[in-house]
Amino acid sequence: MSDEMATIEVTISHMAGSVAQEAATPIIEIDGQAHSGVWGVNRLTVPPGTHTLTAHHRWLVFPKAYKSSTTVDVAAGAVVRLEWKTGAAAFGKGTWTVQQGGGAG
Predict the structure, then answer these.
(1) Looking at residue 45, what is its pLDDT?
(2) Are 78 and 50 in contact (CB under 8 A)?
(3) What was the pLDDT predicted at 105?
(4) pLDDT of residue 3
(5) Residue 104: its pLDDT value, please?
(6) Taking the alpha carbons of 84, 87, 91, 97 in that order, is the dihedral positive or negative?
(7) Burial (CB count within 10 angstroms: exposed 0-12, middle 13-18, buried 19+), residue 12
(8) From CA 24, how far away is CA 90, in angstroms rounded?
(9) Residue 21 CB-half CA count within 13 A
(10) Is 105 helix (H, G, I), strand (E, B) or coil?
(11) According to the model, what pLDDT value does residue 99 have?
(12) pLDDT at residue 21 in the model
C-alpha cells in the first residue's frame, strides 16, 4: 500500500459586492472533519480516494450560511481544484465548481 497522498485545492469566494463576508471564517469539512479556511486558495492534503467536502461560514443569525456539499475522487499524487462560491442569500446553498482535474458530484 502506498503512503502517497493527494491534494484538494478549494478556492473560496463570494458574490461580487459581498465583501463584508470576508469578516467571516469559512469552514471546509472533509468527510465530516472541519477545517478553518481562508477566502482565496485552501490546500488540503488527503489520502487518495473519494471524499465529501462541505463548506459554510457563520453569517449574522445563520450558523452554517451557504452550506453545500460535493463529492470528489482524488488519485494518489493528484491535485483536484474546486471553487466554492457563496450565493445571494445566506439561507441558500453555495455553488461548487470543478476547476481542474478530478470529478465532483
Answers:
(1) 97
(2) no
(3) 42
(4) 72
(5) 47
(6) negative
(7) buried
(8) 12
(9) 28
(10) coil
(11) 87
(12) 87
Q: How far apart are CA 95 and CA 105, in angstroms?
A: 12
Return all residues near 48 (Cβ < 8 A) that are at least 6 apart: 2, 4, 5, 6, 74, 75, 76, 77, 78
User: Residue 91, by phi and psi: left (phi above 0), alpha (psi -120 to 50) or beta?
Assistant: alpha
* Nine cell digits for residue 74: 482524488
Q: Measuring CA to CA, which residue among 58, 60, 67, 61 is closest to residue 87?
A: 67
State phi, psi for 75 to the nearest 5 degrees: -80, 155
Q: What is the mean pLDDT of each run of 10 residues along the chain (105 residues)?
A: 84 87 94 97 97 94 93 96 90 88 48
Q: With contact defined as beta carbons under 8 Å apart, do 78 and 65 qualify?
A: no
19 three-state secondary structure: helix
Report pTM. 0.86
Give the per-residue pLDDT at 91.
85
What domains does the chain contain, in order, with CATH numbers?
A: 6-104 (2.60.40)
Look up cell 462560491; give the residue. 85
